[in-house]
Amino acid sequence: MLLKSRLQVLVLAMLASAAAMAFAAANGAVYTCLGAALGFAIITIEIALAANRPFLKDAPGAVKADKDAPLAASQQNARLMAAVYAWGALAICAIYSLTDLWWFHSWQYGSAMALIAAVLLGFEHLLSDPDSHFRTPRALDVSALLATAQASGAAVGLGFLVASGKLASTKPDWPANHVFLAGGLALVFISVASTITHLRLRRAIANG
Q: How many CA atoms are closer than 13 Å to the CA of 81, on its beta-carbon side?
């Protein structure tokens, strides 16, 4: 499962990436901004894969788990997803409040990402409550379905972002597009890993 030390690395990556993107945006350094965004995505994906690797690399029938394993896995992956949304909100806030760039929709997207991050952290907190209905196997199955939907939605969004040519845009939203690209990639990987992990753990428990 996800170690606290990796969470510290993740928080540092969030702060460093947002700061670097704001600095790059202020100076019109497009590729530096993109690199800072993708750097955060790569670190997050690596942490997610490390946390879920025991359930991704083994044959489905080789996974061993106790009844609380799906709960712990859901908590760690919800925390990782929340980190991606929180980073997106932080990066957009830093870029459009600390530089001369102005984009009308920045506060809308930033607020939406912050809200989703808060909801995911709230969900993760509820999973720690022994009396919460979100801890039931059925509720965790629903959360896995939502993760699959999120992966699909993020993949569609990435496809649109690339096909529309927005990544080559010189309009004020160009740094935000880097946030959407990197955040979308991270969410696809985390969501897919979360779904696979949940399915394999549930199958392992069912098979005894």
A: 32
